[in-house]
UniProtKB/TrEMBL annotation:
Domain Core positions: 19-119
Name of the protein this chain belongs to: FeS assembly scaffold SufA
Family: Belongs to the HesB/IscA family.
Gene3D superfamilies linked to this entry: HesB-like domain
Organism expressing this protein natively: Biostraticola tofi
One record GO biological process: iron-sulfur cluster assembly
PANTHER family: IRON-SULFUR CLUSTER ASSEMBLY PROTEIN, PROTEIN SUFA
Pfam families: Fe-S_biosyn
């Protein structure tokens, strides 16, 4: 196998489109931070998961990580580890009602397919 044309990839030197928060997502994140004074926002990452390959992971942020990228709308902050960007760059985070449930929804242009239950996605 010849690897003459292999290019290196640098997370720090890449130009990212970024993430967008919908008005509803920003409102929900602000609501959560108002309920917990130690919370500074939400962190969105990815992990290997499910039948499609990757799953989204959301956690409360109480301690800042200087390596995170920060996306903000109307005072709501979404923190994203640089290592997650190749999988979720360009994603819009929304907060929607589906039936009786309210959930964060990921509109990820990089996702080529999702599993039947919607818990994981593949590139």
């Amino acid at each position: 196998m010849q690897l003459d044309n292999v290019e290196s990839f640098s997370l720090e030197e890449n130009s990212w489109q970024g993430l967008r928060l919908s008005e509803n997502a920003a409102k929900q994140i602000r609501h959560l931070t108002e309920q917990n004074n130690a919370m500074k926002g939400l962190r969105l990452g990815v992990k290997p998961s499910g039948c499609a390959g990757f799953g989204y992971v959301m956690n409360m942020v109480t301690e800042l990580d200087p390596a995170d990228l920060v996306y903000e709308r109307d005072g709501a902050r979404l923190y994203v580890p640089l290592t997650a960007m190749p999988f979720i760059d360009g994603t819009e985070l929304d907060y929607v009602q589906e039936g009786l449930n309210h959930i964060f929804k990921f509109n990820n242009p990089k996702a080529q397919h999702a599993c039947g239950c919607g818990e994981s996605f593949g590139l």
